[in-house]
Amino acid sequence: MRSYSAPVWQMALKLGLIGGAVAALLALIGMVEVFNQRAIIGGVISMGQTFLGLAVLLSAYAAARRAGTQTRSTALLAGAVAGAAVGLVIGGLALLMAAWPDLRTILINASPTLLALLTFGQAAPVALAIWIVAGGLLGAATGALLLLTPAVRSAILAALGAVVLVGVLADLLRLITSAWGVIGQALRWMFAGRGLSVAGALVVAAVVVLIGVLRQRGLPKLQPAAGRRSPRQTLLSLAISLAILALLPPVLGTYMSEVLDQVGLYVLMGLGLNIVVGFAGLLDLGYVGFYAIGAYMMGLLTSPELGFFNLSWWAALPIVLAVTILSGVVLGIPVLKVRGDYLAIITLGFGEMIRYLALSNALDPYTGGPQGVQLIAKPTIGSFVFDDVTKLYYLLLAGCLLTGFIAIRLRDSRLGRAWMAMREDEDVAQAIGINLVSTKLLAFATGAAFAGLSGAIFAAKIGAAYPQSFHLLVSINVLALIIVGGMGSIPGVIVGALALVGLPELLREFAEFRLLVYGVVLVVMMLYRPEGLLPSEAARREMHEDENVTEESALAQPAEPAIQLERTAT
Amino acid sequence: MALLVARKVVKRFGGLTAVRDLDLDIEPKTIYSVIGPNGAGKTTFFNCITGFYQPEEGEILLDGQPLVGLPTDKITRLGIARTYQNIRLFANMTAIENAMVGLHPHLRTGVLGAIFRTPAARAEEAQATAEARRLLQFVGLAGKGDLIAKNLPYGLQRRLEVARALASRPKLLLLDEPTAGMNPREAEDMMHFIRRLRDELGITILLIEHHMRVVMGISEHITVLDYGEKIAEGAPREIQTNPRVIEAYLGRGGAAQQHGVLDAPAAAG
Questions:
Q1: Around Cβ B5, how many Cβ atoms within 10 Å?
Q2: Which parts of A169-197 fold into alpha helices (H)?
Q3: Around Cβ A515, how many Cβ atoms within 10 Å?
Q4: Is A510 among the domain residues?
Q5: A500-523, pLDDT tens digit by residue?
Q6: Of A432, A549, A557, the CB nearest to B164
Q7: pLDDT tens digits along A372-430
Q8: Is residue B101 domain-resident?
Q9: Of A432, A541, A549, the CB nearest to B168
Q10: What's the pTM value of the predicted model, to 2 decimals?
Q11: What is the pLDDT of residue B262?
Q12: Residues A120, A54: one domain?
């Protein structure tokens, strides 16, 4: 850590002003107001207020961290100054809005509602004072957090985080639990307004703290000290997770099943692209093309509307997969010699080409052109038809398990090693005897097959395939979820899909800010956790090279060998 | 018959001729060195043999089989392996993974074998792991298989690169400055190690080296390049006294102090 020659309060003021500016910006783009419709704790604190509070908290925390904790007063002072500075900016914004109502002609979100929210219904100067004092107090409290022991601090932060998270999802949780009959009735006291009730919030906090205490005391005994678990334990935990996964749709209801289906489609694609990008290091931006080919092939083979084949979904599936694998190979051949950025640009073009082909008049009889293909068959097993989201969930679950299994097996084989070697150094990999052509094509083909399966299920899910479903943004989403989850990491794909596909679905009403949040999340991730949420071993090694490098290997540069020759002269 | 034969090899980069009309015959089980001042074309010649570069003229034969025009992986499969002047390991993979990648051309598990983990695939994988472990032990990396390549000390990284090259079971091993950046003691160790490769594994060694102590100590045959051309060839003794070689290394003015410039240390005879 570098030491700050400037006084602590100056640094804290700077951080506070930055935090305040961010909060003011969020308010002025309308985010605070929109989020205010939902409560974290009903009647006590809304989501919008939580946002502003978070600005105080984060600025104060950063300031207190930098100030250090040598003396109690520096952390408290830094926190208080930063918090007050955030309050000053927000209160100042309120003052500005009150004094100059015409501001709204420029910044349309500077509405009276926002003003009321920012001033607590008081006169603006009073509100400014409240903001500064409240910000300072909250900031000082945040600074005080640093003076606590790590265990207590993490317990408090976890409890706060959990309350906010559960509060954000409270609306949905109430919807889900209301379908549970008696249990739902019994849980009603936990919710108030569009958030948690005070009692509910307290219970959530207590449960989180309790779990934390248990994990520190009790659980280590349950798990053996060695990292490896016995096969029986692995099997048991697998069976339990499977049982939980199988129970999700009836427990969570239709809406959540729809969200999970969406996540499942992206997990399938993510697992496939993870092989191409994560394992083999081939940056493919046209991945949506294979998803489209899978969906359209399913349409071509099963839709009576086009009237070519009328196969059943299951009969068509092997053909669909064969065609997507073939398309993976065919699109792979021209890019065999191309690397990095160039590969990305060319594959980007491929993806767009496929979408335009689907739209084109030339292929109209086969793809339905802009109208797309309707009446695509649903998968059936006996008399069981996968005709709604809760049923399709099981098909997707099976698909994800199968592809996940295949991905793991391939990763741990000779082929996986060849992919990783190729990612590390393509020339050396080839010089070691790896056939780049077959190794690359295998990666493209496997990735394409997974996307084809995803496309086939997607087609069955909506019963149709439309060109606009296969936009470039799908490719980017899949790539982003791999990056956020952790490049090359299979659990990372699932976490990434839940975070980037599942979470936004749950926060639908804030859809207009979705891309903003998405962008911010990606930037923050790349700056502070480039290896992803659940990184693979290799990615962790790569991103943290500075950590455990031995002294000798730092001297990897040869030391002017030729000179030694002349020195031997007598 | 010579294991590796090069005839009139020419490699140009634009107007610059990096290797000019090079002839070379490497007998089986020899330790053969190519030396020369910086920029003499030694590494370029290595890259021509291994398929990284395509020479404009001439031919290179391994056991009578032409190599020019083949991709690097084919050449490796024919029995040539190499190391690199600036170590090029798969830095984020473990030591044993690096060695196992080297075994790649000798394994045949395919997609289905990998997915279903067939008995054949399992047996092959177990064998490969055992062989990789043996290789690591041979090069002095016993027990270090699970370390990440880039975290190994410099000397061991060089050793691991050799292990990876050995994994492809080469007839001819090309070592590009294996002692670069090493202190005299480490270089001495490397010298013994190279000799073991030949004596114990029967591999022919082609070496680029700047440490004269090493070159004169272990080579049976030396070719000297200067500006891409062969200026001398022969046993270490002949090379040490060759006036053209001394001139190439020291320039015309230095030629006066002929004696001792390229002397091998007495111990190395």
A1: 18
A2: 170-178, 182-186
A3: 11
A4: no
A5: 998 888 777 777 887 888 888 888
A6: A432
A7: 999 999 999 988 999 899 999 999 999 999 999 999 999 999 999 999 999 999 999 99
A8: yes
A9: A432
A10: 0.86
A11: 57
A12: yes
Same-domain check for residues A183 and A306: no
Q: Which two tokens stand for residue B44?
A: 């370029």
State whether A123 and A254 are in the same domain: no
Query: Which of A 446-485 lie inside 8 A of B, CB atoms?
Result: 446
Average pLDDT over residues B6-12: 95
B82 CB neighbours in chain A (<8 A) are: 431
For strands B172-176 and B80-82, give the pairing: parallel
Do the chains contact at B150 and A570, CB–CB below 8 Å?
Answer: no
Q: In total, how many domains does chain A have?
A: 2
Same domain? For A131 and A174 the reply is yes
Q: Which residues of chain A have pLDDT under 70?
A: 1-6, 69-70, 218-229, 543-570
Residue A79 and residue A194 in one domain: yes
Q: What angle do CA A429, B7, B49 make, to 5 degrees?
A: 10
- Residue B143, domain extent: 88-168
Expressed as residue numbers, the domain containing A56 is 6-219
CA distance A504 to A510: 8
The answer to whether residue A516 is domain-embedded is: no
Establish if B268 belongs to a structural domain: no
User: Among partner residues A410, A432, A558, which is closest to B76 by beta-carbon distance?
Assistant: A432
Cβ separation B76–A410 shorter than 8 A: no
How far A552 CA sits from the closest chain B CA (Å)?
A: 5
Q: Are B102 and A409 an interchain contact pair (Cβ–Cβ within 8 Å)?
A: no
Q: Is residue B47 part of a domain?
A: no
- Asked whether residue A554 is domain-assigned, the answer is no
The structure tokens listed for A509 are 């009403």
C-alpha span between B94 and B147 (Å, rounded): 5
Is residue A189 located within the same domain as residue A280? no
A304 within a domain of the structure (yes/no): yes
Which of B219, B202, B211 has its CA nearest to residue B79?
A: B202
Complex-level ipTM? 0.91
Provide the chain A residues 484-543 that lie in CB contact (below 8 A) with chain B: 538, 541-542
d(CA B118, CA B122): 6
Residues B247-265, mean pLDDT to the nearest whole number = 57
For chains A and B, CB pairs below 8 A equal 164
Cβ A564–B109 below 8 Å, yes or no?
no
Asked, for residue B96, whether it belongs to a domain, the answer is: yes
The whole-angstrom separation of Cα B46 and Cα B35 is 12
Shared-domain flag, residues A122 and A17: yes
Domain count, chain B: 1
Domain boundary among A412, A444, A473: A473
